[in-house]
């Protein structure tokens, strides 16, 4: 059966001497891994369409439950080569890609996740590669997949609290937190910033002017929250360039 959809190349893995396994985030099928025949040869019909982050219109052949369908066509819509050409920006986007791969199961379509990644790539491609943008992406992705940290009130009773517990993924009040280990404090500024990033579109977040300390605080909280959920650090975190 032939399938057609739009897809963003998340990564490629060599297979044999000239073939590739290409992992896409697609609009119609979610994460798809496809076998590409001989793209590493000079005269490959796929050309540069399999470069990481490339947005293409693709076709792949295989049964509905085929583990590795064959890629038959890949036509570039947008290459995002400006992102690949800037190391610092590419590493930041690579962290976004790793998060997408970590939270999205194969063949589980999510138009919200696809749209989020596409919006982020176009925003970065336009030159808006701020730290706030990437924090915003994390917040919105965590909300979509159901892992957004609870900061607005105690996760059990709703009372106000500034004590965040990694083991619960939420703040807990003094009464509800008894016997639940250690916590760390989260400021009202970081809570408000997280709420704003949840509710505001990418086109509006440039209006936010958080202090460096609040931006750093929320970033660290998200990193620790993700580490707890995934039971590991992000691999790309080791290559961050400040």
Compile the SSE list and pairings:
Elements: E1 2-15, E2 19-26, E3 30-36, E4 55-61, E5 70-78, H1 81-84, H2 87-103, H3 111-125, H4 131-145, E6 163-165, E7 170-171, E8 184-185, H5 188-199, H6 212-230
Antiparallel strand pairs: 1-2, 1-4, 2-3, 4-5, 6-7, 6-8
- Main β-sheet: number of strands, strand sense, barrel status? 5 strands, antiparallel
**Proportion of β residues?**
15-25%
Question: How many separate helices?
Answer: 6
Radius of gyration: 20 Å
Provide tags for this entry.
242 residues; alpha+beta; OB fold (Dihydrolipoamide Acetyltransferase, E2P); de novo design (two linked rop proteins); five-stranded antiparallel sheet; three-stranded antiparallel sheet; 21% strand
Short description:
The chain is of the alpha+beta class and 242 residues long. Helices cover 34% and strands 21% of the residues.
Describe this structure in words.
- With 242 residues, the chain is α+β, with helices and mostly antiparallel strands.
- It has 2 domains: 2-79, Nucleic acid-binding proteins (OB fold (Dihydrolipoamide Acetyltransferase, E2P)), CATH 2.40.50; 83-151 and 186-239, Recombination protein O, C-terminal domain (de novo design (two linked rop proteins)), CATH 1.20.1440.120.
- It is 34% helix and 21% strand.
- The protein contains 6 helices and 8 strands; from the N terminus they run E-E-E-E-E-H-H-H-H-E-E-E-H-H.
- The strands form 2 sheets. It has a 5-stranded antiparallel sheet. It has a 3-stranded antiparallel sheet with strand order 7-6-8, with no helix packed on it.
- It is elongated and about 65 Å long.
